[in-house]
Fold this protein.
Amino acid sequence: MKVTIITVVYNGQDTIQDTIESVLTQTYENIEYIIIDGNSNDGTVEIIKSYGKKISKFISEPDNGIYDAMNKGIGFATGDLIGFLNSDDLYLDASVIEKVVNTIESNKSNSCYGDLIYFDKNDNDKIIRNWHSDNYYNGIFKRGWHPPHPTFFVRKNIYEKFGNFNLEFKIAADYELMLRFLEKCNVSTCYIPETLVKMRIGGTSNRNIKNIIIANIECYKAWKVNNLQYNPLMFISKPLSKIQQFNYKKKSIWSA
């Protein structure tokens, strides 16, 4: 099975090298690595070019946002399975893609996902939040649940059949796509109960209160555009479910 990994980046010179190394050091050999750059001007392009032919496909040009860049990557992909690793993210170890392929093949599934950890942007070893996912069943999205998108791998023919990222969504197109694939289109999936990806804290959807509000509005819109009945309480349970994922210091904040 050929696996396509897509990285989208814009002005990511501080982190892009770690991301690239995370992909190139994978033990699984049949990997196509595509990088879509949004016309960076900070040295990112020079770092990527330094890897030469180790990068299967590289383009640098203006785009209409992260999901437009992701759709470009899907268009170039020739692999049987597609995964995304953004320029702030890392695979936990060198065996991640091998585990993903073994899981997909053994379960004869069209997609899979796993767990994710958020780490401090200044300290790769300082874990801020543990996102432990769960086994999927139809209707679980109504509880506010969804897979961590950076751990979500999907066969290319599923994109061809059910579509790419919906560019009407600026922050939550990944949520809409996973909702569409799993809840509406009943794409088969399986859960790998292991951490697959490390993500630096501070992504687009949770960067500030404004973006959190926009993301939740878009999540509501995702149900509407897919003609799915939603549970109004999920917009409460969704953020509340994240609280227990954070690592808090044992010492009380009220202690002297």
